[in-house]
């Protein structure tokens, strides 16, 4: 990981990688969504409602994966003071919050016809809403300090403590009885039929590539901002 | 430097307090975080008449009957060991059907019948096309 300790070396890899990740992700999402929305079979109980999962499940996965990324970056900031850790954590927060909100929104739209309610305070829905608020809190904490190149110790600690919510989200439907269904995909296999599972995997992978591209773009933007500020300061002193 | 150490100590104490509070909340919510109670839990710990709670379980096979008034339905909510009759007047969600999960909000009346004000359908983790469901489930669950 310390290969990337030099931002210039990081940029030399991130710059050419970004368009591949982004356009590869867009292409994969397009194919998977056309397949999922038009060609995959309808569900025996839900009918066409099932097609919501091709957006809802990747959004939920990325909302949780985003905070896992913040956790790793926060630990790298606290323990090794890695120069890119704070930048990465800042870059992840906004798209993570966006996908978490998308997950809550699509879930609510699905819940009205399927369950008969827009919202219910069960373990899964509530812990996912808390994740969205944690993202807002992290963004506020990270932008509270003037230091742009890293996040404050408080923000990093918040990133670590907030991660306690991730296993709660995952196991909320197993530990507590809830309205949300139990997980369909586990290490033991899947209770989603193959004809629906492959578009779901394609969509999840595609959105993940887009997410990674957004994070790299935001990291490059933050690094550029820092350099501009440093140059302006030097010019002012000269 | 001294102020910095003070802030650090405060931050660490705060983190310990937050984690402690989190675990206490988790422990306290073990029973209360459940969205609903099952018929066997009601049988083991009866709920007073008129007290609102959520009842969850499976809609028993062949138990949905439409009452003569045209808007009220009566059905049995069951789990592995117990069952409870439910009365409900209104429109049910799309996924409400026999052999499928349900969460009902309401209260017990004097006759031991659960009078529901709201019916929520609980979906399970199985997703499959209709042809496959007909083969797997013998056609009973397909609409």
Please provide a written account of the structure.
The complex is a heterodimer of chains A (238) and B (143). With 238 residues, chain A is mainly alpha-helical. Chain A has one domain (20-182, 194-237): Four Helix Bundle (Hemerythrin (Met), subunit A) (Up-down Bundle), CATH 1.20.120. Chain A has helices at 7-39, 53-79, 85-114, 123-142, 153-162, 165-175, 194-237, and strands spanning 185-186, 189-190. Chain A starts with 6 loop residues before the first helix and ends with a helix. The mean pLDDT of chain A is 89. In chain B, strands 1-3-4-6-5 form a 5-stranded mixed β-barrel. Chain B is built from 3 helices and 6 strands. Chain B has 143 residues and is α+β, with helices and mostly antiparallel strands. Chain B has a domain at 39-122: Nucleic acid-binding proteins (OB fold (Dihydrolipoamide Acetyltransferase, E2P), Beta Barrel). The termini of chain B are far apart. The longest helix of chain B has 31 residues, at 2-32. The chains are: A mainly alpha (238), B alpha+beta (143). Chain A binds chain B through residues 41-47, 49-50, 53, 113-117, 120-123, 153-154, 157, 161, 164, 168, 172, 175-179, 181-184, 191-193, 195-196, and chain B through 8, 11, 15, 18-19, 22, 26, 33-36, 38, 56, 92-97, 100, 103, 118-134, 141-143.
Number of helices of chain A: 7
State the end-to-end CA separation of chain A.
36 Å
- Which percent range describes the beta-strand content of chain B? 25-35%
> What general form of chain A does the structure show?
globular
What kind of assembly state do the chains in view correspond to? Answer: heterodimer
Main location (chain A): membrane
InterPro entries (chain A): Cyt_c_assembly, Cyt_c_biogenesis_CcmC, Cyt_c_biogenesis_CcsA/CcmC
Membrane topology (chain A): Multi-pass membrane protein
Keywords (chain A): Cell inner membrane, Cell membrane, Cytochrome c-type biogenesis, Membrane, Transmembrane, Transmembrane helix, Transport
